[in-house]
Design a protein that fits this description.
Radius of gyration of chain B: 23 Å
Oligomer: heterodimer
Distance between the termini of chain B: 43 Å
Largest sheet of chain B: 9 strands, mixed
Structural class of chain B: alpha/beta
Helix content of chain B: 25-40%
Shape of chain B: globular
Strand content of chain B: 5-15%
Number of domains of chain A: 3
CATH architecture of the largest domain in chain B: 3-Layer(aba) Sandwich
Order of helices and strands of chain A: HHHEEHHHHHHHHEEEEHHHHHHHHHH
Distance between the termini of chain A: 20 Å
Largest interface: A-B, 70 and 62 residues
Helix content of chain A: 40-55%
Largest sheet of chain A: 2 strands, antiparallel
Number of strands of chain B: 12
Chain lengths: ~425, ~450
């Protein structure tokens, strides 16, 4: 079944490199094939958003001033986004350069950081790392602002090396962290006027020795020293791979990705191209092994059902699922993987599907002549023909028969045939197969 | 000190958590019960640790004497552990924000208290006395707690924390929750790791977060845990679907079977666990025909009172729970502390009193210890806003019939403070954890707490 296999590949690509393909897109992409679709993802054209802008209780979103609207704002961009890989990489970088508004306390700065991340999402890592060093939310979050000569704060320096560029204890020492912190001094923030700046007087312009290099380094020199280190390319390529596959990156592939990355001058685009075309990325199509993150699951749920962000329940739903954009748990981002799933988070995922289905199928709208096979086909069509495994297919068939067995009276048909449809759609949207991609 | 209270507290106002718990089942054995079994343990190829982890009681000695094979002893021990109806239970109650220990247990005999607490100090005459101890008095709102203390059911530790705390809510809370001080990539909480060591993979209710999202102390790597605020209504709903047995069966079918995919296996297992928890909790549902059963002492009508009542109902139903966690907010009293703190402590003391009475009525009070903790204490010198800023050396309490009542750690006094003008820390919180792991849960502390030293405290009787 080469045709099915091609479609399965495109579905995986759109889930892992985006937020799930809209039903109408999948067929066209399948026809175009994987390499061409990857190119489209890497070089998107046209409008970034499509569909109606969200309105909550009749008013547009107010992400800065209304609690939770920042979350809805980002979710809406994922749902309406026409440049899925850009949007997905923006979110991946949010996880990588994890900054939480719990520590920043200024939603305006968090929204600005979104644009910092988005601007560099598919560009050179060097540019993005330099931009994030100057990013105000980051400067507040990791105490870079007001870190000054004489008493440098090591917070940002440590994470820059440990989390952002090299990996824990991977090519640097405590001494390097302290020296890097000296070089990173001079950024200022005035708590009264809320203004940011850089004061050469507060910068330590003495000689520093960082990872074997000596000089009167300035803040951004530290970024260049870190990404110039030989451990950086394997580290960042391995991290990129982990955003697209839960399987360990084989050493040979990692060497190849690192080589590509270096040759491109830290441009991530060719690395992503290599990952998204690699056969290991498409392994296990019949039984996918990547757990969708709550944000991806939720955006995908809305995309599959052609639903828009229309109420503010998604903020607390994402909270209960365990992933609130702009609020990663700490600077190392979300743990991810199977850790997403707990008895409470799975209930929240279940409820999310209930919310999408609610009030979409009227009692009395389905005739008693609908066969079980027709009922399943109808549910598949309404949920974007999601990939399902044999277990789910079997569960659907059994339920489709048993749920209406003996329901022949008019008043029974009126309710139970639509009820069957509600449950079939629910299982397709929220069942175990819907949790993985 | 240029630390701004507003800035210091931003991290506290986080209500969001991405810590996720997964679930398991454990059995405790007092470590002492195994003393003298070394020879047997060696001969059978067993270690003290194996035995501890399998939760074997004293009877194992009898089994050994009876000449059973190592294998059959172990199998029996495991079976006993998994069904142990008398397993000990540890409950973590977190006072969120940094409880003011100095105004909870007031150091009456310290002459500097009056000086440093000129604005929010508790009048010595209004405190509630501790029998035989003139140095301290309870906050006047703690009559409920005093009752328990006077019954010998409260072990009090006046200055517990870790060295060189930076007074960040975020850091301190994370360290306490993980049981690891300092930077760490450990994502699991110390009680979650306890379940990882001794739990079973298929009983989520062995570790219960009484909340809407998993408590970080219960986050585990492998063990299943449950997050249930209210067992009266833990259920799955689909709008306009009347036959819930129908969709439950469909979900169970779809969630059955083995798969090589770790992710898919986790999704199936989690659904199976969640529906199991739903079924297990069914007898606890409350509706018109099944009203909430009466309790011996009324719980306060507060979030904490409700949460403890909910937990007592779950423990009473015998699901093999070994650890549970809940929290109570509002302790970050930077301003107008007097009224707020009094209200919080009234709630705390009265809730604990009702909780102990409820546990006793259910025959559980000898099996449950409640550990009350906060991420830090507050600065001895009060501030200009009628409140107190972040300090060190918080007050911990262990409450229960088997708690070794009394003051169980050193109070450092106010005369000599640390370099940040905070209370000196006399006891590391990890020592308390280690003690409870070994003396109460029957788990070797080093399996859960990396680099733990040998210090222990007399907290359990």
């Amino acid at each position: 079944m080469p045709r099915n296999q091609d479609r399965a590949k495109i579905e995986r690509l759109m889930w892992r490199a985006g937020f799930g393909g809209r039903p109408a897109q999948i067929a066209a992409m399948t026809k175009a094939g994987v390499p061409a679709t990857v190119e489209t993802l890497l070089r998107p054209r046209g409008r970034a958003l499509k569909g109606p802008a969200p309105r909550i209780d009749g008013a547009p979103l107010d992400p800065v001033n209304t609690y939770g609207h920042d979350v809805l704002w980002w979710l809406d961009r994922a749902v309406r986004g026409e440049h899925p890989l850009v949007e997905r990489m923006t979110f991946n970088w949010h996880d990588h350069f994890a900054t939480s508004n719990d520590g920043v306390g200024d939603t305006r700065l968090m929204l600005k950081q979104y644009w910092t991340l988005r601007g560099g999402a598919l560009g050179k890592f060097r540019d993005l790392a330099r931009a994030i060093t100057k990013d105000r939310a980051m400067q507040l979050f990791l105490s870079l602002a007001n870190s000054e000569k004489g008493e440098p704060n090591e917070n940002f320096a440590r994470e820059l090396l440990e989390l952002f560029t090299l990996g824990v204890n991977n090519g640097y020492t405590e001494k390097d962290v302290r020296e890097a912190a000296r070089a990173l001094t001079g950024f200022t923030f005035d708590y009264d006027t809320k203004s940011f700046g850089y004061d050469p007087e507060r910068h330590d312009d003495g000689l520093k020795r960082i990872m074997g290099r000596t000089g009167r380094f300035k803040p951004l020199d530290v970024v260049d020293i870190a990404i110039g280190h030989k451990a950086h390319a394997p580290f960042i390529c391995s991290k990129l791979w982990s955003y697209f596959s839960p399987r360990p990156c084989p050493p040979k592939l990692l060497r190849s990705l690192a080589k590509t990355y270096r040759a491109a001058g830290t441009d991530v685009k060719p690395v992503l191209r290599e990952i998204l075309n690699h056969k290991l990325f498409y392994a296990g199509l019949a039984e996918p092994d990547m757990v969708k993150s709550p944000f991806v699951y939720t955006a995908g749920l809305l995309r599959l059902t052609n639903t828009w962000v229309e109420d503010d329940s998604w903020t607390y739903r994402l909270d209960q699922m365990g992933q609130v954009p702009f609020h990663p748990p700490n600077v190392s981002g979300w743990e991810g993987g199977t850790a997403w799933l707990s008895t409470s988070s799975i209930r929240a995922r279940f409820d999310a599907a209930s919310a999408v289905i609610n009030d979409t199928i009227e009692d009395g709208s389905i005739k008693a002549t609908q066969t079980p096979a027709q009922a399943i086909a109808s549910a598949m069509a309404a949920t974007g023909h999601p990939r399902i495994g044999a277990r789910t297919a079997n569960a659907l068939r059994r339920y489709a028969v048993q749920s209406v067995a003996g329901k022949t009276e008019d008043y029974e048909v009126e309710h139970y045939f639509p009820e069957r449809q509600r449950v079939l759609r629910h299982l397709l949207l929220a069942g175990p197969d819907a949790q993985v991609c | 000190m240029s630390r701004s209270p507003v800035r210091g507290c931003r991290d506290l106002h986080s209500t969001r958590r991405a810590f996720l718990g997964r679930a398991t089942e454990v059995v405790p054995v007092p470590a002492d019960a195994l003393d003298g079994l070394d020879a047997f343990a060696k001969s059978g190829g067993l270690t003290r640790r194996n035995l501890l982890e399998r939760g074997v009681g004293l009877w194992i000695g009898t089994a050994a004497l009876a000449g059973l094979s190592t294998r059959s002893v172990l199998e029996a021990a495991t079976a006993q552990a998994q069904s142990a109806p008398d397993a000990t239970i540890l409950v973590s109650l977190y006072l969120e924000g940094g409880n003011d220990g100095l105004n909870t247990l007031v150091p009456l005999a310290d002459p500097l208290y009056k000086t440093l607490r000129g604005r929010v100090g508790i009048a010595p005459g209004s405190t509630l006395a501790l029998p035989g101890i003139a140095e301290f008095g309870w906050h006047p709102s703690l009559s409920g707690l005093k009752t328990l203390y006077d019954q010998g059911k409260v072990a009090v530790l006046p200055s517990v924390d870790f060295a060189d705390a930076d007074q960040s809510h975020f850091n301190s809370r994370a360290y306490w929750q993980r049981g690891i001080v300092g930077q760490s990539f450990e994502t699991a909480g110390w009680l979650g790791r306890t379940l990882d060591v001794v739990g079973t993979p298929d009983n989520p209710l062995q570790g219960i977060s009484v909340n809407y999202s998993p408590d970080p102390v219960l986050t585990s790597h492998r063990a299943a845990t449950a997050t249930v605020y209210d067992p009266s209504n833990f259920n799955f709903y689909i709008g306009d679907v009347w036959n819930s047995d129908g969709f439950t069966a469909a979900y169970r079918n779809a969630s059955s079977g083995a798969t090589a995919s770790e992710g898919l296996a986790a999704a199936r297992r989690t659904y199976a666990n969640a529906f199991r928890v739903r079924d297990q909790l069914k007898p606890l549902r409350v509706d018109d025909q099944h009203p909430l059963p009466p309790v011996p002492v009324a719980y306060p009508d507060t979030d904490l009172g409700k949460a403890l009542q909910n937990l007592a109902r779950m423990l009473g139903a015998g699901f093999g729970t070994r650890v549970a966690a809940l929290s109570m907010g509002g302790y970050d009293t930077h301003d107008d502390q007097a009224g707020d703190h009094a209200e919080l402590l009234t709630d705390l003391g009265d809730s604990l009193l009702a909780w102990q009475a409820d546990l006793a009525a259910r025959g559980l009070s000898a099996r449950v210890l409640t550990m009350v903790w906060s991420e830090f204490g507050r600065r001895p010198e009060d501030n200009d806003s009628g409140g107190t800023d972040h300090g060190a050396g918080g007050l911990m309490m262990v409450v229960g019939d088997r708690a070794n009542g009394g003051i169980r750690s050193e109070f450092p006094g106010l005369a000599q403070l640390d370099e940040d003008d905070n209370l000196r820390v006399t006891t590391e919180f990890r020592t308390v954890y280690a003690t409870l792991l070994e003396s109460w849960l029957g788990v070797e502390a080093a399996r859960v707490l990396p680099k733990i030293d040998g210090a222990r405290l007399p907290l359990v009787k």
